[in-house]
Write a structure and sequence with these properties.
Layout lengths: L13 H14 L8 E2 L1 H8 L3 H13 L3 E4 L3 E4 L4 H25 L2 H20 L2 H17 L4 H21 L3 H19 L3 H27 L4
Antiparallel strand pairs: 1-3, 2-3
């Protein structure tokens, strides 16, 4: 299993370090959906024993990113159109709610931060920086949801984003949609700046709906059928 460089950041425990590294490998596609995870190889790569790796895999299993089977080991959870539909159904409603709350709660400083992220995102789209764009795309959304001032709501949304990261990587490789998405972000910002809470909620819901539709089209094209 040949992976990219391991982050030099060390976490408080070996299991936390294994969890963070494995999660990143899964989210950025280095560990493909459906692929087996060799626990001995991971242990050797990280320089830790197998027990913390097992603990990390159990945590990832509880989050839906890994499937653990007794006596058979672990695989990266497969992707499917059904899961993607379910993710975006829940995200549509929760992120719409968070956006409506944010329109009422974002400070001027938080709105200024949204502009900074937007400017960076547009630059990344122009130069074709996919990894940078994905990071900025997430940062933009999370900066909005922070303005909802509801820690539980934000944690749930963040966990859904983790599950959807692999889908976004496939979807956002389409250059024309990256341009559209960035333009939609600019519109969301304008609605937030003018405190038009219900319109901001509706537009965020539409933004998520469009993402899901494009994803379905891509899955249909690549697989020839819906899962």
């Amino acid at each position: 299993m040949n992976r990219g460089p391991i982050s030099e950041v060390r976490y408080r425990t070996a299991s936390e370090h294994a969890y963070r590294v494995l999660k990143q490998w899964i989210l950025d596609g280095q560990l493909a959906p459906g692929s087996a995870i060799d626990q001995a190889d991971v242990s050797a790569r990280l320089g830790i024993s197998r027990m913390p790796v097992r603990t990390a895999l159990e945590r990832l299993d509880s989050e839906g990113l890994v499937l653990l089977t007794p006596h058979r080991g672990a695989i990266v959870a497969p992707t499917s159109v059904r899961e993607m539909r379910e993710l975006y159904f829940v995200r549509r409603h929760l992120e719409g709610l968070a956006t409506e709350l944010a329109a009422q709660g974002l400070s001027d400083a938080q709105l200024d931060e949204l502009v900074r992220i937007l400017d960076l995102t547009e630059q990344q789209v122009r130069v074709g920086d996919l990894d940078g764009f994905l990071a900025s795309n997430r940062a933009f959304h999370m900066a909005i949801y922070a303005g909802a001032n509801n820690a539980v709501l934000r944690r749930v949304i963040e966990s859904l984003w983790d599950l959807g990261e692999r889908y976004r990587r496939a979807y956002l490789q389409l250059p024309e949609r990256a341009d559209e998405s960035t333009a939609e972000h600019r519109r969301i910002y304008e609605l937030l700046r003018s405190r038009r809470a219900r319109e901001a909620r509706a537009f965020m819901e539409e933004h998520n709906d469009k993402t899901m539709r494009v994803l379905i089209e891509r899955f249909e094209r690549d697989s020839g059928k819906l899962a």
